[in-house]
What we know:
- The chain is an alpha/beta fold.
- It is built from twelve helices and 14 strands.
- Strands 3-2-1-4-5-6 form a six-stranded parallel beta sheet, with helices on both faces.
- The longest helix is centred in the middle third of the chain and has 17 residues, at 149-165.
- The two termini are 28 Å apart.
Amino acid sequence: MSxxxxxxxxxxxxxxxxxxxxxxxxHPWFEITALTGSDRTAGRPxxxxxxxxxxxxPPEKIASMIVQPTEPNLEPKVLFSALPTADARELEPKFxxxxxxxxxxxxxxxxxxxxxxxxxxxxxxxxxxxxxQQEAYGWPGYIVANANCSTTSIVLPLKILHxxxxxxxxxxxxxxxxxxxGYPGVPSLDIMDNIIPYIGGEDGKLETEPRKLCGQxxxxxxELADFKVSAQANRVPVIDGHLGSVSVKLRQxxxxxxxxxxxxxxxxxxxxxxxxTMPDPVLIYRPEQDRxxxxxxxxxxxxxxxxxxxxxxxxxxxxxxxxxxxxxxxxAASG
Length: 335
């Protein structure tokens, strides 16, 4: 008899669902016992219904599992949701109302006042709002959301700086990989030899989500961090890895050398240091002038670490730097 926690994956046949499978299939804490899909795939073995997008083939023990309809009658009570936005908005509250813990990659409830927007190394205390969510919405389950993949790539260094010196403003320009658009994604003739300076809704997410992630949880409510973010998101011809160019104005002065030392010496909150997949270190500082780069740094810490570099004085604000994280691992299924 396994002592692992049984879990299900909603929308398991899509690109994010496949990433969930690969991250959870041999996880020391979790055992996948249910997969859901669309009407097209429900009732079929997973290996027959899925268009597998990752390397190799679906794991053998997953391929033989029968895909179930996405309905709140699943056996496992912990669910990882890879549902598309519209489906997530409709279905995730139904699962929470039926007593399920829904851990979602989708965006509809990220800024909900009772839903934790969670990155364990950034704001683990925000889970304290879950009982207030259950009381407010009258459901025995709950929803926990992860952050947008572009937000994830830059928010850890922002949180570290905000705690140490206080942030007043941040200006962010992202260079985002094509895998962030899902499958089939961006048309090849649009992205080849090109940069697309528009990703629908992305600028707004970059400007709001960091304030919730870096904010305070106090007495059953979130207080957004009191800094402003200006963001411009761009799609670039890179497969994986979102790179952010960040310039910040600090409330207390700090030199580049002090910021570098802060990044190098930072440790994650004690409560999450024993997580089995946490990389060591979580945050990597690269001193080279040409790092971080997506191809060289996205897989650091098995794709779960952040990498920062080019920490310099900013002639307009105070400090500028680059930050990168793997968008489909740290920024989606594994974060």
